[in-house]
Design brief:
167 residues, 5-stranded parallel sheet, 5 strands, globular
Length: 167
Protein backbone atom coordinates (compact mmCIF):
# COMPACT_ATOMS: atom_id res chain seq x y z
CA UNK A 1 0.00 0.00 0.00
CA UNK A 2 2.84 2.41 0.76
CA UNK A 3 4.23 1.79 -2.74
CA UNK A 4 0.95 2.95 -4.27
CA UNK A 5 0.93 6.15 -2.23
CA UNK A 6 4.56 6.85 -3.09
CA UNK A 7 3.96 6.28 -6.80
CA UNK A 8 0.92 8.52 -6.74
CA UNK A 9 2.96 11.29 -5.15
CA UNK A 10 5.63 10.85 -7.82
CA UNK A 11 3.06 11.06 -10.62
CA UNK A 12 1.50 14.14 -9.09
CA UNK A 13 4.95 15.71 -8.76
CA UNK A 14 5.58 15.06 -12.44
CA UNK A 15 2.24 16.63 -13.29
CA UNK A 16 3.24 19.69 -11.25
CA UNK A 17 6.32 20.20 -13.46
CA UNK A 18 5.80 23.58 -15.19
CA UNK A 19 6.43 22.13 -18.66
CA UNK A 20 3.91 19.34 -18.16
CA UNK A 21 1.35 21.68 -16.64
CA UNK A 22 1.79 24.21 -19.45
CA UNK A 23 1.27 21.53 -22.10
CA UNK A 24 -1.87 20.31 -20.33
CA UNK A 25 -3.45 23.75 -20.33
CA UNK A 26 -2.35 25.30 -23.62
CA UNK A 27 -5.24 26.15 -25.89
CA UNK A 28 -5.41 27.53 -29.37
CA UNK A 29 -6.63 31.09 -29.90
CA UNK A 30 -10.08 31.67 -28.49
CA UNK A 31 -12.93 31.67 -31.02
CA UNK A 32 -15.75 34.14 -30.40
CA UNK A 33 -19.10 34.42 -32.15
CA UNK A 34 -20.60 37.91 -32.35
CA UNK A 35 -24.32 38.06 -33.17
CA UNK A 36 -25.46 41.61 -33.88
CA UNK A 37 -28.03 42.92 -36.36
CA UNK A 38 -26.53 46.41 -36.64
CA UNK A 39 -23.85 46.18 -39.35
CA UNK A 40 -21.72 49.02 -37.96
CA UNK A 41 -21.75 47.76 -34.37
CA UNK A 42 -21.05 44.21 -35.58
CA UNK A 43 -18.04 45.43 -37.61
CA UNK A 44 -16.65 47.55 -34.74
CA UNK A 45 -17.02 44.74 -32.19
CA UNK A 46 -15.49 42.16 -34.54
CA UNK A 47 -12.58 44.47 -35.37
CA UNK A 48 -11.84 45.26 -31.70
CA UNK A 49 -11.94 41.60 -30.70
CA UNK A 50 -9.79 40.56 -33.66
CA UNK A 51 -7.23 43.26 -32.81
CA UNK A 52 -7.12 41.84 -29.27
CA UNK A 53 -5.95 38.52 -30.72
CA UNK A 54 -9.13 36.46 -30.82
CA UNK A 55 -10.63 34.60 -33.77
CA UNK A 56 -14.03 36.09 -34.56
CA UNK A 57 -17.03 34.93 -36.57
CA UNK A 58 -20.11 37.11 -36.98
CA UNK A 59 -23.79 36.62 -37.64
CA UNK A 60 -26.36 39.31 -38.39
CA UNK A 61 -29.29 37.74 -36.55
CA UNK A 62 -30.17 35.00 -34.10
CA UNK A 63 -31.02 32.43 -36.77
CA UNK A 64 -27.61 32.84 -38.42
CA UNK A 65 -26.03 32.74 -34.97
CA UNK A 66 -27.77 29.47 -34.16
CA UNK A 67 -26.58 27.97 -37.47
CA UNK A 68 -23.00 29.04 -36.65
CA UNK A 69 -23.22 27.58 -33.13
CA UNK A 70 -24.36 24.23 -34.51
CA UNK A 71 -21.64 24.20 -37.17
CA UNK A 72 -18.62 25.16 -35.07
CA UNK A 73 -17.23 25.23 -31.56
CA UNK A 74 -16.85 28.59 -29.85
CA UNK A 75 -15.32 29.72 -26.58
CA UNK A 76 -17.68 32.68 -26.17
CA UNK A 77 -20.92 34.06 -27.57
CA UNK A 78 -21.52 37.81 -27.62
CA UNK A 79 -25.07 38.57 -28.66
CA UNK A 80 -27.35 41.54 -28.95
CA UNK A 81 -30.82 40.93 -27.59
CA UNK A 82 -33.07 43.07 -29.78
CA UNK A 83 -32.77 41.46 -33.22
CA UNK A 84 -35.17 40.35 -35.93
CA UNK A 85 -35.87 36.66 -36.58
CA UNK A 86 -34.63 35.46 -33.18
CA UNK A 87 -33.74 37.61 -30.18
CA UNK A 88 -30.52 37.17 -28.25
CA UNK A 89 -32.40 35.71 -25.29
CA UNK A 90 -34.22 33.25 -27.57
CA UNK A 91 -30.84 32.29 -29.04
CA UNK A 92 -29.42 31.68 -25.57
CA UNK A 93 -32.52 29.67 -24.64
CA UNK A 94 -31.91 27.42 -27.68
CA UNK A 95 -28.25 27.14 -26.70
CA UNK A 96 -29.12 26.01 -23.18
CA UNK A 97 -31.87 23.66 -24.41
CA UNK A 98 -29.20 21.97 -26.54
CA UNK A 99 -27.07 21.56 -23.36
CA UNK A 100 -24.37 23.91 -24.67
CA UNK A 101 -22.46 25.42 -21.76
CA UNK A 102 -20.83 28.20 -23.76
CA UNK A 103 -20.33 31.44 -21.80
CA UNK A 104 -22.53 34.29 -23.05
CA UNK A 105 -22.19 38.06 -22.96
CA UNK A 106 -25.54 39.73 -23.60
CA UNK A 107 -25.14 43.23 -25.04
CA UNK A 108 -28.32 45.24 -25.16
CA UNK A 109 -29.80 48.63 -24.56
CA UNK A 110 -33.18 47.41 -23.39
CA UNK A 111 -32.85 44.18 -21.45
CA UNK A 112 -34.58 44.29 -18.10
CA UNK A 113 -34.72 41.01 -16.20
CA UNK A 114 -33.03 37.90 -17.51
CA UNK A 115 -34.11 34.41 -16.50
CA UNK A 116 -31.28 32.98 -14.32
CA UNK A 117 -31.74 29.54 -15.92
CA UNK A 118 -30.23 30.99 -19.13
CA UNK A 119 -26.92 31.36 -17.27
CA UNK A 120 -25.91 34.62 -18.94
CA UNK A 121 -22.26 35.04 -17.94
CA UNK A 122 -22.16 38.83 -18.27
CA UNK A 123 -24.26 41.69 -19.56
CA UNK A 124 -22.97 44.73 -21.36
CA UNK A 125 -25.37 47.67 -21.56
CA UNK A 126 -25.40 49.61 -24.83
CA UNK A 127 -23.89 51.95 -25.72
CA UNK A 128 -20.44 50.75 -24.64
CA UNK A 129 -16.84 51.56 -25.49
CA UNK A 130 -14.61 48.92 -27.06
CA UNK A 131 -12.30 48.96 -24.03
CA UNK A 132 -15.30 48.06 -21.83
CA UNK A 133 -16.18 45.24 -24.20
CA UNK A 134 -12.62 43.89 -24.23
CA UNK A 135 -12.43 44.02 -20.44
CA UNK A 136 -15.62 41.95 -20.10
CA UNK A 137 -14.44 39.50 -22.80
CA UNK A 138 -11.11 39.05 -21.04
CA UNK A 139 -12.77 38.56 -17.64
CA UNK A 140 -15.22 35.98 -18.99
CA UNK A 141 -12.58 34.04 -20.90
CA UNK A 142 -10.16 34.19 -17.96
CA UNK A 143 -12.83 32.81 -15.62
CA UNK A 144 -13.67 30.10 -18.16
CA UNK A 145 -9.98 29.22 -18.55
CA UNK A 146 -9.62 28.95 -14.76
CA UNK A 147 -12.56 26.54 -14.65
CA UNK A 148 -11.05 24.49 -17.48
CA UNK A 149 -7.63 24.40 -15.82
CA UNK A 150 -9.25 23.16 -12.62
CA UNK A 151 -11.18 20.47 -14.54
CA UNK A 152 -8.07 19.47 -16.55
CA UNK A 153 -5.94 19.29 -13.39
CA UNK A 154 -8.62 17.26 -11.61
CA UNK A 155 -8.91 14.89 -14.59
CA UNK A 156 -5.11 14.51 -14.84
CA UNK A 157 -4.89 13.85 -11.10
CA UNK A 158 -7.57 11.17 -11.29
CA UNK A 159 -5.81 9.57 -14.26
CA UNK A 160 -2.54 9.51 -12.30
CA UNK A 161 -4.27 7.95 -9.32
CA UNK A 162 -5.88 5.29 -11.52
CA UNK A 163 -2.53 4.46 -13.18
CA UNK A 164 -0.76 4.31 -9.82
CA UNK A 165 -3.34 1.94 -8.40
CA UNK A 166 -3.00 -0.45 -11.36
CA UNK A 167 0.76 -0.87 -10.94
Amino acid sequence: MEGVVMQTQTNLSAAADPGVVASLFERPSRRILVVEDDEIIRAIVAHAITQAGYDVDTAENGEQGWAALKAREYDLLITDNNMPCLTGLELVQMLRSASMTLPVILASGGTSRVDPSLRITATLPKPFFTDQLLKVVQEVLHATADEMRYCDFFTATLANLRCANKV
